[in-house]
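This protein record is not my work; I was only asked to verify it. Would you go through it and say whether the fold makes sense for this chain? Here is the record exactly as it was handed to me.
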Amino acid sequence: MQIYEKMNINNTALVVIDIVNGCCVGEEFKRIRDMVPKLKEFVKDYREIAKTPIIFINITPWTKKHLTDNINELYTDPQACYYSEDKSGFEEEFYSVVPEKGDLVFTKNHYDAFVNPDFKKYLKENQIHYLIIAGIFGDGCVLATICGGFSRGYNFVILKDLIETTDASNRQALQKILKKYTWPIMYGKTITSKEFLKFWKELLKK
């Protein structure tokens, strides 16, 4: 299976988005928690095969003080408001899938990870052109990061079985459309983690 002709170990990075307590711990996140062990196993396999740093994206405290002006203006609408009330720092801590020595962590105060200048700088300085995407929420920060990165010229491999959202039926339905139609047609190769690992092992043998 060929994904991208020019994709190789040196110009590719795995990006894991928002596997933090605030997006995993709660009654509405059962589907996410069910997905996380599979993601954890994939990260382990990827690390052993690629032997390159993994990029983890996390969040600032999701409060008015830390968020951007346009999010704060949007959140004046009660139905669009998702401020956190947590003051302990618990919500920003990684859940189960955690960085190891040598990995990179970039923190965002928006939906799109590309708002972090250090993230963009790292990709540019290391000549990364292909991003493998996993994480949450499929219809939120994952979607925003894919759109933001694609508009900046990056190509994506989207691991559809390692992307989840809340249990809400409307969000599950939207995510299903993204995985089945929007992402593969408009933004990147949308495949399973098993398919990707098979491709990656074959690529690295060459």
Observations:
- The domain at 12-205 is CATH 3.40.50.850 (Rossmann fold).
- The CA atoms of residues 48 and 112 lie 28 Å apart.
- The two ends are 13 Å apart (CA to CA).
- The longest helix spans residues 30-50.
